[in-house]
Amino acid sequence: MDLNSELLSFIARSPSAFHAVENVKDALAAAGYRELYETEDFSVKPGDKVFVRRNGSSLIALRIPEAVPSGLMLAAAHSDSPAFKIKENASVASSDGYVRLNVEKYGGMLCAPWLDRPLSVAGRVTMRAEGGLVSRLVDLERPVALIPNLAIHMDRKANDGKAYEAHVDMLPLLSQAGAKSFDALVAGALGVKEEDILSRDLFLYPVAAGSLWGAEEEFVSSPRLDDLQCVFGCLKGFLQAKDTQSLAALCVFDNEEVGSSSKQGADSSFLPDVLRRVCYALGMDETAYLRCVSGGFMVSADNAHAVHPNHGEQADRSDRPVMNGGVVIKYNANARYTTDSVSAAVFGEICRAAGVPVQRYTNRADKPGGSTLGNISLSHVSLDSVDIGLAQLAMHSCYETAGAKDTEYLVRAMTEFYSREIRKTPDGIRIE
Ligand code: CO
User: In the predicted model, is pLDDT for residue 370 greater than 80?
Assistant: First the structure.
């Protein structure tokens, strides 16, 4: 299968952050990685390949070298995307005989693309089972809901800039009175009794399949490219890389879209907890752990804005990444991104060695732009870091567009990154 078909298959199987992490877990397990549990002892030895999940929606994988780790090569991307979360009392019946789903926003999405699209539902439910409680993933898979637009005849100003009120405009139609309830649909998909389902974390997702398109199929469009394209590229690189004497780490964090401050987000103790426990289990002490971290290097991978074909004026005047132009290094004077001249030079050299072109991104000086998980992670585990991504259009739409060639550029860059070691010297850095 070619790389973009593999990417689109991975995204299609990952309709929620829980599913994305499940698929990363399966890929790691197939490559011989063993799961460690935070509630149990971390028994690891040199040469082990392990991973840890937290909340089922974040994951850290580690490849432990044969000797005491001489450094740390870490990449991080996020498993979540903006979506609509289904509220507790899900069904809202109206006197017109409609049944809608009651939803709220998760993250900062573009609302308009969600309208008039067949939607399905996926996520996690917790239920009674085997004398206790168990959480299971669920995906209704087929279209069950749709958020209809108001006809132009009823809203003549619809094309003049529309303000979407989530509480009013964004509720999807599920059924008409008398149909199966939403809870019955979920229970049916799981093959369990409705009354055994105690609670749920369920999200709407568009069922539209990803596609390759353009005169020469140079573009790839899909839901959730931000940031599953980076999760996919980093995972591939992590699994394909040569063994080194550094600890190789792959982090997939949930909740980037809502500030990362959950127990499993980048702004939690997850990363330092796992790194410290693994280092201690290898017989290292706190000083050895701190030396390993401070000699390390992080790639924070989250997609970047490509110049828009109809709105070139929204991009910076000189740092204007395009799709299919290679990996984008992101800069921000106010440290919203972790890149500095040292980390940019290191990552640029790694890309050069991999034959991968590099582009530069900065916001227009009058636009604040977004931030990402890099600088948040660094407040817990401090090491040199660069923010990168692939250039894409329509970020936070539910159907985003990126460059078909760039998927391979990221895989090549990350394979090179994880195959290398970085040594800090008193006056510089060696990339070995
Ligand atoms: Co992102």
Answer: no
Within-domain flag for 218: no
178 Cα–ligand 1 center, Å = 40
Distance 42 CA to ligand 1 centre (A): 31
Say how many Å lie between the CA of residue 325 and the centre of ligand 1: 19
Residue 303: pLDDT over 90: yes
CA of 351 to the centre of ligand 1 (A): 21
Q: Classify residue 213: in a domain, yes or no.
A: no
For ligand 1, the distance from its centroid to the CA atom of residue 389, given in whole angstroms, is 9
pLDDT at 58 over 90: yes
- Write out the DSSP string of 363-431: --TT------HHHHHHTTS--EEEEEE-EEESTTSSSEEEEHHHHHHHHHHHHHHHH--EEEETTEEEE
CA of 82 to the centre of ligand 1 (A): 9
Q: Are strands 391-393 and 304-305 parallel, antiparallel or unpaired?
A: parallel
DSSP string, 237-299: HHHHSPP-SSEEEEEEES-GGGTS-STTSTTSSHHHHHHHHHHHHTT--HHHHHHHHHT-EEE
Total tally of structural domains belonging to the chain? 2
- Measure 48 CA to ligand 1 centroid, in angstroms: 31
Residues 167 and 31 in one domain: no
- How many whole angstroms from 303 Cα to the centroid of ligand 1? 6
